[in-house]
Amino acid sequence: MSWEYLGYFASALLIASLTMSDVSKLRWFNLAGCIAFTAYGIAIAAWPVAITNGLLTFVNIYHLIKLKRQQQKPQ
Q1: How far is Cα 28 from Cα 31, in angstroms, rounded to an integer?
Q2: Which UniProt keyword terms apply here (predicted)?
Q3: Count: domains in the chain
Q4: pLDDT, tens only, 22-60
Q5: Which is the most buried residue in 20, 24, 31, 45, by most CB within 10 A?
């Protein structure tokens, strides 16, 4: 497999995430893109790419949990 395709796929996910008007969908697509970019960065030994997107993965997870908790609060 050409790792370049994984990089393009990750880019497409991140671009798609920024077109979402629903914040939850934005976070899910962005999370998938960050995970793909982390894998891509590891595969090609581009550590700044892997580390940055690995950290952004946790940022997205944090915000998804926060959104879920807000939705579960009784109004």
Answers
A1: 5
A2: Membrane, Transmembrane, Transmembrane helix
A3: 1
A4: 999 999 999 999 999 999 999 999 999 999 999 999 999
A5: 31
